[in-house]
Structure formats: C-alpha cells, structure tokens
Amino acid sequence: MLRLTICVIALVSQHVVDSDDHPKGHLQPLGRHRPPVGSIEERASFPTPLEMFEKYVRGSKPVIFRGILEKGMLPAYKLWTDSYLRENYGSEYVSVEKGKKENRKWDMLNITMSEFLDKYQKEDIYMVNDASVSMAEDINMPSMLLCGGFQRVVQNVIMWFSSGGTKSVLHNDGLDNVNCLIDGEKYLVMIDKKLKADVEETGWILNGQYSQVDVEKVDMYKFPKFRNLPWYEVKMQKGDCIFIPFK
Predict the structure, then answer these.
(1) With contact defined as beta carbons under 8 Å apart, do 227 and 218 qualify?
(2) pLDDT per residue over 21-31, tens digit each?
(3) Which intervals hold domain JmjC (predicted)?
(4) pTM (two decimals)
C-alpha cells in the first residue's frame, strides 16, 4: 500500500566515550553519537513508473527529489496559503495533536480548519489530518505513480501542518510513503532496516512500530545498541519530495 503525505518523519542512526566518561551522544539528540554514514540518492526529476517500481519500490530504496514541486506537479504547493485554506476549507473539521513532540498517546482535538489557523502560530499544536475529498482536488498524483496500479493502492493522503519545531518518535511505517514539503524544512535521521534487530532490541512497541527512545535525549545506557548505529542524514527543503520505503 502507498501513502502520500503533504507537509513532516524522524527515524535513527564504535563505541566512543565523551570526556565525562558517558558514551558519546548520551542524553543528546538522536544521531549525535557518530557522524552520518552518508545521505540517500538525490534526483532532480521523477523516474518513469517502471523505474520507480523496479529500483525504488521493489528495491526498497529511499530517494529524494530536489525542488520537484517547483515544476508545478502539485497545485497545493502554490495555492495553500493560510488565507486560501481558510476561504476554501475553513468549515472542514481537522484532527490536531496536542503538542509538537509526538508521544503516540493520540490526544487529539477535532476543530475546524479556521479554528486551527487561528491557533497554530500561538499554541503547541500540530495538524495530522487525512485530506478531505475536496482538498485532494489540489493534490495531483506524482507522475512516477501514474501507471501499473499505483493509484489503486493509495491508502490515504495526509496533511501535516504546524508552525515548526515538530518531532516524531523513532518509527517505521507499514506502508510505502511519498512525503512532499510545501513549506519549511525537515530533518530526517534514517536507519537501514537491515539493522532492525538493533533498533528493536530495547523499548520497541511492536503494535505501534515505534521506539520509546527519547529522540531529543537518547539514554545510551537504556538503549546500548544505539551507541554504534550507523545512520543516514536527510535535509528536506521547501519543494522537495522523498520516497520512504515500507518499514
């Protein structure tokens, strides 16, 4: 199955010891324990649907498309200002998380788009909402998904929206994801799924597919396998889209 998200995702990253005798990265943000091993493949245009399937979907390989939204494939990229959303979808109800640091407690507000637009610059809230049928009219399917049955397996289109500073739990998804950034910046820490056993050894919530590790302050004693985890760094800018494979 496939998910298209319109935005923010965080995932992970020699035992090195700091001068205070704690393992490097202890009680620091995820990824501070060692430099990244690299980034993922970058492209300036979408592949054909066949190449997309063979190389990235079946090959389970992430890829980022730099500045792709500047080429006009997503009407929402130009249309979705606060005033446009208020005028066209202001009466629609949206799901909003209380807090910008994800905790998977799903403590949600159900308010109108207009109410959210009144609050989001001043309050610690984060919209995570399935785009309505009318909103989806502003969202075209990327050309790399326009044949071979991709359209029939799109499970949902999600809109993520905040004033910035959001953080997700370390997790994986049971779906392939295409994530597009309409505005702002996004920083991703990604771990190859071949390291699944190390990531999931301690504090892994199986039914939610996420870790209990604090992504802002990693306890290297509680999560000792994280001391050596290689990770990949991805920095998304406004106009980028990224493909994140299943799991």
Answers:
(1) no
(2) 899 999 999 99
(3) 130-247
(4) 0.89
